[in-house]
Amino acid sequence: MANERIFKLLEKKGITQYRLSKDIGVSEGLISEWKGGKCKPTTERLIKLAKYFGVSIDYLLGVTDNQNFSEIQSIFEQLTPEEQAEVLQNLYKQYPKINK
Question: pTM score > 0.70 for this model?
Fold first, then answer.
């Protein structure tokens, strides 16, 4: 999933594999291997890629479809403690599996 999302982001942002390789400090050959599915980025490289693209690691891994996790977190942190508790209670009701 990460490989697929990386290349969708490259296309969306108009960034070449060459530019990505230079910007994050890996070889073009490694990026080609990611694209071909021969290997996956390491955790360290996923962190670099998430920062580079301005998305969460969860997004790259396919855990969420929301690219702007930091925006959601920022909004949540602006709520009062009571509002945060209400949001969490509603989430727990809607998604009981996360309350374990």
Answer: no
